[in-house]
Each structure stands twice: as structure tokens, then as C-alpha cells.
């Protein structure tokens, strides 16, 4: 056999596996789908429904006593707001906080 025929035979052996790349791509795609689905938590409500037919906002703390705070000192306070109704909660205006001076 001549050199040209041997080279042609080697190239044709490489082309005889057209299923290899789609197989690898399918395995990679299945792995990505698995990782995406595994990372999503099940859709469960965060709180028990207390109001039926309307949204309802529940706050974990209605008042916070910060004690004596010096002028210029920063204080951090967190509230957990939860929709305990069975309808979506939407704000028609931007929510605000009212800060009241202590007694």
C-alpha cells in the first residue's frame, strides 16, 4: 500500500464514530439538567395560611426597644415580613417605616 492509502484509512477510521460527540454532549446536558433541578427547592409556602381570599402581611416584631443610643451611633434592626394570606401581596405605593420617639 502506498503512503496516501494508509493516511486515508486512518482518517476514515476516525470518521466512523459519528455517535461519539452527540453521546458526550447528551451526557453533559443531562448532568447540567440534574444539577439545576436538584438545586431548586420545592415550592412550599413559608408560613401557614391565616387569611383566605386576600393577602395579609405579618411582622415578626411590631416594636423594638433599642435602649439608649448615642447621637451618631448606627443601629441595625431586622424584621421578617411574611405574607400569611393565600393571594399574592403587592404594594401599590413604596412601603415606609414610621420611627416614633420613645417615652
Task: Quickly count the helices.
Answer: 2
| Strand line-up in the sheet with most strands | 1-2
Instruction: Write down the secondary-structure element order.
Output: HHEE
Distance between the termini: 104 Å
Structural class: mainly alpha
- Give the C-alpha Rg: 32 Å
Summarize the structure in words:
- This protein has 103 residues and is mainly alpha-helical.
- The protein has two domains: 3-39; 45-103, no CATH class.
- 32% of the residues lie in helices and 6% in strands.
- The chain is built from two helices and two strands.
- It has a two-stranded antiparallel ribbon.
- The protein is elongated and about 85 Å long.
SSE blueprint:
Layout: H1 3-15, H2 20-39, E1 57-59, E2 81-83
Antiparallel strand pairs: 1-2
Record keyword descriptors for this entry.
single chain, 103 residues, mainly alpha, 2 domains, two-stranded antiparallel ribbon, 32% helix, elongated
Amino acid at each position: 500500500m502506498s503512503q496516501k492509502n494508509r493516511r486515508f484509512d486512518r482518517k476514515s477510521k476516525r470518521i466512523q464514530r459519528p455517535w461519539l460527540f452527540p453521546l458526550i454532549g447528551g451526557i453533559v446536558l443531562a448532568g447540567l439538567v440534574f444539577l439545576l433541578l436538584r438545586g431548586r427547592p420545592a415550592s412550599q409556602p413559608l408560613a401557614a395560611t391565616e387569611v383566605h381570599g386576600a393577602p395579609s402581611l405579618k411582622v415578626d416584631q411590631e416594636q423594638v426597644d433599642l435602649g439608649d443610643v448615642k447621637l451618631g451611633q448606627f443601629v441595625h434592626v431586622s424584621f421578617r415580613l411574611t405574607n400569611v394570606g393565600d393571594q399574592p401581596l403587592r404594594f401599590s405605593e413604596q412601603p415606609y417605616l414610621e420611627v416614633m420617639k420613645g417615652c
